[in-house]
């Protein structure tokens, strides 16, 4: 069994004395693990940094085996490492994909969205807004999409201000009424029309975080969301406060 593909490196862990096991998010083969022989060497180790874009060839005697990778670097994205906020974003992305994606299940649309997201980190100051939309895309891709197109109560498309934690549908400010404090915020950035204000991005992450926890993580056995996501949010809050 063998194939060749391109993908973003999600994680690296040591395997024996000189090898490592890497997890790569590829377009055609999904999240796929494999052993890299000599992965701790001075030649290969610098290539294997999370977020790096790799050309990988996987081979195994049987399809169900973990198999082995040979790797060639395509893009390092090393500039992210000098930007603490962008690095926090990278860690959140790789951790969430590792957490949420089933092994060996292709998700080509999410793969392309993830590539675009990674390319913004450390390059475009608007990446936190793109990251918020990327979390929406993760929920959508894995069957937990939100319906933010119209008010669940009135059917109108104006003045949408909240999201129902029960249904994941938008609710207008007028329809929310006295129930507003029981609903989740729906900043304009979640609708794709915001200005990217940090407070609005954080409000949106509060909403996506609710559904990542109560819908996605619940379906995976109520496992806690990976810690790098919380660290990213903390970093964004500190930036907003000027710390």
Summarize the structure in words.
The chain is an alpha+beta fold and 243 residues long. Helices cover 35% and strands 22% of the residues. It is built from six helices and eight strands. The chain has helices at 84-100, 108-120, 127-141, 173-176, 198-219, 227-241; strands at residues 2-15, 19-26, 30-36, 53-59, 68-75, 160-163, 170-172, 184-185. Strands 3-2-1-4-5 form a five-stranded antiparallel sheet. A hairpin with a 3-residue loop joins strand 1 and strand 2 (19-26). Helix 1 runs antiparallel to helix 6. The longest helix has 22 residues, at 198-219. The radius of gyration is 20 Å and the shape is elongated. The model has no long low-confidence stretch (mean pLDDT 95).
Q: In which order are the strands of the major sheet placed?
A: 3-2-1-4-5
Helix content: 25-40%
Using the alpha-carbon principal axes, give the shape: elongated
Strand content: 15-25%
**Secondary-structure-derived class:** alpha+beta
Give me the secondary-structure topology:
Layout: E1 2-15, E2 19-26, E3 30-36, E4 53-59, E5 68-75, H1 84-100, H2 108-120, H3 127-141, E6 160-163, E7 170-172, H4 173-176, E8 184-185, H5 198-219, H6 227-241
Helix pairs in contact: 1-3, 1-6, 2-3, 3-5, 5-6
């Amino acid at each position: 069994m063998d194939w060749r593909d391109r993908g973003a490196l999600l994680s690296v862990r040591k395997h024996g004395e000189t090898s490592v096991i890497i997890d790569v998010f590829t377009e055609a083969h999904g999240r796929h693990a494999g052993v890299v022989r000599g992965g701790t060497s001075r030649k290969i180790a610098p290539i294997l940094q999370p977020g790096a874009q790799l050309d990988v060839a996987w081979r195994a005697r049987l399809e169900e085996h973990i198999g082995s990778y040979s790797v060639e670097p395509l893009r390092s994205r090393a500039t992210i490492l000098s930007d603490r906020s962008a690095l926090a974003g990278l860690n959140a992305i790789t951790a969430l994909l590792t957490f949420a994606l089933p092994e060996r299940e292709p998700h080509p649309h999410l793969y392309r969205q993830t590539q675009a997201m990674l390319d913004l980190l450390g390059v475009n100051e608007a990446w936190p807004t793109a990251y918020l939309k990327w979390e929406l895309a993760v929920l959508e891709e894995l069957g937990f999409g939100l319906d933010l197109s119209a008010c669940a109560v009135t059917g109108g498309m104006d003045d949408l201000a909240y999201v129902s934690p029960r249904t994941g549908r938008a609710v207008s400010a007028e329809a929310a009424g006295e129930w507003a404090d029981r609903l989740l915020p729906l900043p304009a950035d979640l609708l794709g029309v915001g200005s990217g204000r940090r407070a609005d991005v954080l409000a949106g992450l509060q909403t996506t975080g609710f559904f990542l926890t109560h819908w996605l993580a619940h379906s995976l056995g109520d496992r806690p969301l990976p810690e790098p996501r919380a660290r990213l949010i903390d970093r964004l809050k500190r930036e907003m406060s000027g710390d």
